Every structure is written in C-alpha cells, then in structure tokens.
Amino acid sequence: MQAYHALAASYDQLTWDVDYGATVDFYFDIFAAEGLQPRTAADLACGTGSVALLLANRGLDVVAVDMSEEMLTQAQQKAAGLTNPPLFICQSLQRLRLARGVDLAVCALDSLDYITDPEDCRQAIGRIYKALNPGGCFIFDVNTPEKLRAMDGQVFLDENEDVFCVWRGEFDNETNICSYGMDIFQRRGKLWQRSFEEHREYAYSAKQLVDYLKEAGFTSIRVYGDRRMEAPKEGEQRIYIKARKGKIK
After folding, report:
1. Are 102 and 42 in contact, with CB atoms under 8 Å apart?
2. pLDDT over threshold 70, residue 4
3. pLDDT by residue (tens digit) across 199-225?
4. Nearest-CA neighbor of 87 among 102, 100, 95, 76?
5. For 19-43, how does the pLDDT look when each residue is reduced to its tens digit (9 = 90+)?
6. Among 14, 28, 102, 116, which has the minimal tally of Cβ within 10 Å of its Cβ?
7. Angle value at C-alpha 76, between 67 and 60, nearest 5 degrees
8. Cα torsion 74, 86, 125, 238: sign
9. Into which CATH architecture does domain 7-143+205-245 fall?
10. CA dihedral over 126, 127, 128, 131, signed as positive or negative
11. What number does CATH give the domain 147-201?
12. 193 vs 163, 187, 238, CA distance in Å?
C-alpha cells in the first residue's frame, strides 16, 4: 500500500507532539539573517498542510504540493476556515511545475528522504530551483544517516482512543534505505480496521545534498543543526539546509 494512504486520516492525531510552530519560527530566523521578506511560498510535500497553514496565517501567499491525494484531502479540510487558504496541488517533487515562481520553498519533516532514488532527488532539487524567483530561498530538513541507521531493529508504538499504530524499523546498508512497516488499527464505530503501510527513507548525507544543490545552481548554501542557527553537532539527528537562487540583491 502507498505510504500515507491509510495513515492520512490519523496522521495529525499521531503527530500531535510535532512542533510545527517552532519549525516555521526557525524559517523566519533564517529570513531575518538573510534579509528576506518573502511574499509567496511553496510548501513541498505538505502532508496535511500544517506548515502551509502557518505560513498563510503569517501573510504569505502559499501553494502547497503533495503527491498523496489522501493527505491533501485532510489539508483542504483544515484550511476551510482560512481567509487566505493555500492552493493545494497534487504533484511529485520530481515533476514539480508551478504556474508562477515563488520567493520561498520549504520542505519539512524529512520529506526529501522519502525520495529513495538519488537521481530522483537530484531531479527534484532541480525542479525546485526552477520554481523559485531570482533570489528565492529553499529551506528543508532531513533525518541524518546516523538517525536512520539507529532505527534498525527498533519497534515504536503510537496510540490514542481511535488509532493504534505499531511500526518496526529496518536499515539496509546495501541500499542505504531505512524501511519501516506500519500496522495501523483505526476505530470504525465498534470495530477496528487494520491497515499496513511501508515507509522508506534514503539516508542522504549533508555533502550529497549540498552537491545536488550546487549542481542545480543554488548558492549561499548553509547547513544548520536542528532548528539552531549554527552548524550541526556530532551525532545530530536532524539537519536543516538553506540555499538561495542567485545572489542576494
């Protein structure tokens, strides 16, 4: 089953502890350091739209892109009450094509890791470069190889009154991919419906991603620790990367 098919309806319930606000605050820390005041933004691999909605609430004109129709359905429902709702588009990043350029592109929660073919990742970064206006900024985060390798053999449990999820991690050193199978039990009245999904993430190194960014034409590239305006520490679990399209005006 495709990732985020069955999980979409329960995703926000299971990720209640994700601090999207802190992530968006960090984006704005980068804007301040770069002297940026973006007016338009693309939230790439937007999922259920949590980041897109926060950006829209801060006054940005947002287009939100995801390849999962189920996740986009959840996002559209959440955005229904906004006066400035994002425009939601169903696309893969490898085939990204926006109707107009944007000042900012963000890709949160290790979504690039889900592109498990490095050539596809390189292509996606090239597409993102083309989608940005001159001087535009691309900010994204990924799980580090250290984190993904440490997930091998681990079992995790998430639950609330309406959903029970067990997932098991496995890292393949030959493919450099971490796979985790998810057994999802969702309450349907008095019954429980069981589903299974497999999620896969490629363990990209910071150097590999920086090389892809340079190949695409990005400049002013900087790697940060997890929501910190400083270089990653040894053993960091998540890193952020910022890149610009062209020189700062």
Report:
1. yes
2. no
3. 999 999 999 999 999 999 999 999 999
4. 76
5. 999 999 999 999 999 999 999 999 9
6. 28
7. 90
8. negative
9. 3-Layer(aba) Sandwich (3.40)
10. positive
11. 2.20.25.110
12. 9, 6, 33
What's the rounded Cα separation, in Å, for the pair 153 and 217? 39
| Residue whose structure tokens are 């109707």 | 99
Question: Which 8-state DSSP code applies to residue 8?
Answer: G
145: left (phi over 0), alpha (psi -120 to 50) or beta: alpha
C-beta separation of 53 from 74 below 8 A? no
Q: Which residue has the higher pLDDT, 24 or 14?
A: 24
Tokens at residue 155, please?
């079992």
Q: Which of 75, 10, 7, 17 is nearest to 46 (CA)?
A: 75
pLDDT class of 249 with cuts at 50, 70, 90: very low
Pairing of strands 102-107, 40-44: parallel
pTM of the shown model: 0.94
Label residue 88 left, alpha or beta by phi (over 0 means left) and psi (-120 to 50 means alpha).
beta
CA-closest candidate to residue 172, choices 142, 197, 190, 151: 151
- Report helix angle 69-78 to 50-57, nearest 10: 30
Q: How many residues does the chain have?
A: 249
Domain boundaries, the chain: 7-143+205-245, 147-201
